[in-house]
């Protein structure tokens, strides 16, 4: 089992990020669906009386998705896994500012594979809080903290998009950006940090460490690219309401169902292609 806490600082308020994240998730879903692969949304509905983080949060929005991922796992897994087994199921409870996501492969790996992503979001913070997820002393000992800098961390050539470069982007609606220099986090206002705790386990003799390393590397890549997109699409989501977001999600679900059956495979591949 590996535990890493990714801390992503952004020039947003926590309230803005709620809208920005949901908008960007919808957009990213379209970019990663096509040619028989991609995201299938089975449920998107309100939930209540589901205690999270010791009962501090218990209501919000529940989603259940299936990711069809044949090209998005390492080649050595594709060779070993039976055909049709590379479906990842994702359940998410969004009780913002707390969110929990559980990823499994019930068709093949059952209890031998899981990824838990617990997210908390704090305003006026640059990623300095110590134990927001209230981990036990044993888990704190093995937790690794990783700070993600959306402006200065390197991205793969295949992931780079000029229009999603925080060092050149400036929002016309808010005036925020570009994010320049190693200390931009200390100079922006507003500022917030996402604390994303990723716990993963892959019980497969001879492959556990290799796959768990790949998972954590992929999560860092995903968080970096996603949050670059969040910031650089500010003028597209700024001013939207939650009603606007739900309407966008409904429309995107229809588009995903069509796109998954046609076209070419799209989105981030395991090898960066």
TrEMBL record:
Fetch the Pfam families from UniProt: IP_trans
Single annotated GO MF: phosphatidylinositol binding
In the UniProt record, which is one GO cellular component term? cytoplasm
Chain ranges of the Phosphatidylinositol transfer protein N-terminal domain: 1-254
Q: Which Gene3D superfamilies match?
A: 3.30.530.20
PANTHER family referenced in this protein's UniProt entry, alphabetically: PHOSPHATIDYLINOSITOL TRANSFER PROTEIN, VIBRATOR, ISOFORM B
Protein name (database record)? Uncharacterized protein, isoform B
Q: Which organism was this protein described from?
A: Drosophila virilis (Fruit fly)
Q: Which gene is the coding source of this polypeptide chain?
A: Dvir\GJ23248
């Amino acid at each position: 089992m590996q535990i890493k806490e990714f801390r992503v600082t952004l020039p947003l308020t926590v309230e803005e990020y709620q809208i920005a994240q949901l908008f960007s998730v919808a957009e990213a879903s379209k970019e990663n669906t096509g040619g028989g692969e991609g995201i299938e949304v089975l449920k998107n509905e309100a939930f209540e009386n589901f205690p999270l983080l010791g009962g501090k949060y218990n209501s919000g929005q529940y989603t259940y998705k299936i990711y069809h991922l044949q090209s998005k796992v390492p080649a050595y897994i594709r060779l070993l896994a039976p055909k049709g087994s590379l479906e990842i199921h994702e359940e998410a409870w969004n009780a913002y500012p707390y969110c929990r996501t559980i990823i499994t492969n019930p068709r093949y790996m059952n209890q031998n594979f899981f990824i838990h992503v617990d997210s908390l979001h704090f305003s006026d913070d640059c990623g300095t809080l110590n134990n927001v997820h209230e981990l036990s002393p044993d888990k704190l000992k093995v937790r690794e903290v990783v700070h993600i800098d959306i402006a200065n961390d390197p991205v793969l050539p295949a992931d780079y998009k000029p229009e999603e470069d925080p060092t050149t982007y400036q929002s016309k609606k808010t005036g925020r950006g570009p994010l320049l220099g190693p200390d931009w986090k200390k100079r922006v206002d507003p500022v917030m940090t996402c604390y994303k705790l990723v716990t993963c386990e892959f019980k497969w003799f001879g492959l556990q460490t290799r796959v768990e390393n790949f998972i954590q590397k992929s999560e860092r890549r995903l968080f970096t690219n996603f949050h670059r997109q969040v910031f650089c699409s500010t003028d597209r989501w700024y001013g939207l309401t939650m009603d606007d977001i739900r309407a966008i999600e409904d429309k995107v679900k229809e588009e995903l169902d069509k796109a998954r059956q046609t076209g070419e495979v799209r989105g981030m591949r395991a090898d960066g292609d």
